[in-house]
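Researcher: Structure for this, please.
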Amino acid sequence: MAIRNRKHDASEAYWRLPITWVLAGAFGFLMIAVAGTMLFFVTATAERQTGRMMREIGDLIMDRSLEIVEEFFAQEEKVGLIVADIMSDPQIMSAPASLQNHLSDILSRQTAIDRLTYTYPDGLQVMVHLAEGEAFNSIEQTEPPQLPEGAGHESRFWHPPYFDEELQATYMRLVIYIQPEDQAGHSRITVDYPVRQLEDLLERMVWRTGQQPFVLFNNTMVLASTEPLFDEIPHTAEKPVPRIEDMTGTSLAHIWDYTENSFRLPVEFGAHVDVTAQGPVLFIYAPLKRHSQLPLQVGSYMSAADFGQPMTILNRVAFLALGVLLVGLVAIVFIGRAIGRPIRALSRKALEIQDLDIEGAPRLPRSHLKELDETNASFNGAIGALEAFSRYVPKALVKVLLKRDFLGLKNTELRQLTIMFTDIAGFTTVASKLSAEETTQLLNKHFEEMSQCIVATGGTIDKYLGDGVMAFWGAPEEALDHVDRAVKAVELIHQKELSHANEHDEGQRLRIRIGVHTGTVVVGNIGSTERMDYTVIGDAVNVASRLQELGKEVDSNATVIALASEETVRQMSAQYPRNLVGAFELRGREQPVNVYRIL
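Model: Predicted structure, token format:
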């Protein structure tokens, strides 16, 4: 029977994974994918909610803040023009000084302006001091006002903050040019606002806890801030108000840093979140709308963590999802092991079948999984059938059949093998003294020991012949040392028989005759498609049989006698003994055969 090896080519890369890993990996990946998707959507939702909350609160704060500051300056500009119109009236100017001062005192309580100067086109300048409790007027002649390039009637110009050494206060100056109806040229109105008035506005700008409002001039100078540090920094002529960088240790100092962690919010006003030493901070800011000529930046900042309720919920969901994921992974591992355990048992059984290590082995257990239970039941049936099959067919042959694929059932080949025949001398006499059951037990025990010796040396049992055995070495698996294997089997048989020398009565002791011959034979499947034998045929088989029979003539009383042909002896290793008995004419052979006693 020609057979093809099923082993993988050594050059082929073939990797395998335990089913527990596959199940845990597959379900784990699925759970991670599902949990990741859920976390992604929850995160996206939380980020949208946080962003929306920041935008809505930012809108409220900025609308409120801008409205407060816009109204303040609109009111002050309006009052300033009224005051300038009143105090520059010729009738007021000619009134007694006490009346002028009394009028200035009344006006000072209606405005935040500390000082107002009205300069006529001819250079006459009227200065009105409106500081509460210090109201007074003064008139002097100065240079006529020079209209700046591009300026016209009611043109307004804001100047950077300055520190007045005389009044020891910081002011913002607004200059307005107007065209009097009855005079040529332009008059100039100069209005000085004390910066401290802006601090009162900050209190009104606060809308929520933790909010820190501020007012900047040209984005670099801090006109007002609720930070305690702002009040601690002295105002001087060189530095009338603190600069952004002077606000060390506050978040305001980092408003324009824009670190790599910052991100802008999609709103109409300016808004961004950045990470400072104080943690994540939300900055919101915007210039004045109705006073675009006034370079002020009004805004607030607050901890971005205050908007973290959605993120807190997200963190809880994330931890919960992580916990569920870990529990799920552990459960998957246990489920995978539970499923993998019977499959591994199935795999082990398959390996046992491959080695024909199935006799007396426990069967696969029942399973609560329908497919596995049916597979185990089918496999147990196959094991039983194979176990029965292996009792009628040589195990070596069954192993080969399990490891290889059939290419044809009737293929045979010529191969040099070593064939052995054994027989129990005088078995009829021994059997006559025993019952049928005792005879069967004795014969089965004998065959079991013979089989062990043959299989242990890699031989194949061809068939049992009454009380004898026919076996061969070198097929189905090739073995270059098939001669030595056969001779070794003879030695093992001899040792077995010697060990039983004292176990039986003299009348029940077995005497074994063995014939061994090496030659070329036809080996393979012989028979029909319904019934086949894996066997050997040829002259060499006959010679081995005749040598076994010849043992009766050479030494009929030997416990074990083994005769071998010259072809066998020639290929034997030197370690094994051999004694030439002589040349014998064997039945079926024309030429005498040199016979050696090897045991």
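Researcher: Any notable elements?
Model: The longest strand covers residues 511-527. The two ends are 34 Å apart (CA to CA).
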